[in-house]
Amino acid sequence: MKTNNITHKIDINNAENNSVIKIRLNDECKNGHEDFSITATFWKVGKVRNDAAMISGGCCHEEILKIRPDLKIFVDLHLADFRGVPMHGLANSMYHLQVGFNKTPITDPKFKSEFCDYYMIDPKHFDSINVQDKEYYKYMFHKLGIIKAWKVNADKAIKLLEKLTGEEFESKATRLQNIDLTTEETKEISKRIKNGYYLPDAIKLRESNILKEKQNAMIKKLEDDTNKEIEALRLELSVQLFLISRNVSLNNFIYYKHSNTGCFNWKSYEKKMTQEEFDNFLKIKDLPKINWELK
Q1: What pTM was estimated for this model as a whole?
Q2: I need a labelling partner for 149 at 20 to 30 A (CA). Which of 108, 122, 158, 262 fits?
Q3: What is the per-residue pLDDT across 175-234, written as a single tens digit (0 to 9) for each?
């Protein structure tokens, strides 16, 4: 029977172990992705399987491999999709190459082996994929056969799961990890490689240009904001000078730059302009062209 929901349970209850191991390949999260998963629950030996007797549960991979080392292929593929691609495999692995893997910094001698083991990458390819450009990074995963190796490993696990369950897996995934390259993308990256686009000096030059563009954009924004502020202050000054020239008190007047509005009677404790005085004020021919308001 063909299905996209294969699950297998291994029940172990003997003098040494009391556990249940669960293996699945399905879209359990209902997000369109079909992923591998292997988890387990361990109880005290000889005890009833209840919360009081439970020792551990979840992704107990070290404990699982101690009693069933033959299940390592599923441990390696935990949370990888049906094509063998680790969750956000390219983006996450590139991030780890730059900042370190979990608690292991990139300067630690163990980093390389931990990284390659987790992402199922042959250590001989480590130096070749240690690049900074995202598209080139993806290209190298294809070029070095890493994507293909992921698929071969996943197919092997699927066959084993099918043998264990008697079911046949058929994908119905509606979402896939972004690992594929179009023909056009491959041609463009190949062209860039020939032109030295990914060489260290070329990368440094692009990074320098990008930094310079960001700096220029920041400078322009600062200058534009400052000029706007100066223009607003000049306008406010011209309005205040105009009012003084017309013998209008500034004690109960304020200019709001954000709305370009001159407001009278904004203070409750100062002498107020009457509505009649305000109406006559608005009749002045050379009145500054701002919004005028009487509170």
Answers
A1: 0.70
A2: 108
A3: 998 899 999 999 999 999 999 998 888 888 988 999 999 999 999 999 999 999 999 999
- Of 241, 226, 82, which is closest to residue 158 (Cα–Cα)? 82
Q: Is the pLDDT of residue 1 over 80?
A: no
Identify whether the C-beta of residue 278 lies closer than 8 Å to the C-beta of residue 294: yes
Residues present in the chain in total: 295
**3-state DSSP: the chain helix, strand, coil percent, rounded to 5?**
45, 15, 35
In Å, what is the CA distance from 209 to each residue of 17, 41, 216?
62, 54, 10
The answer to whether residues 22 and 39 touch, using CB atoms and an 8 Å cutoff, is yes
Residues sharing a CB contact under 8 Å with residue 292, sequence separation 6 or more, in sequence order: 261, 262, 264, 278, 281, 282
- Please report the pLDDT score of residue 174 as a whole number: 95
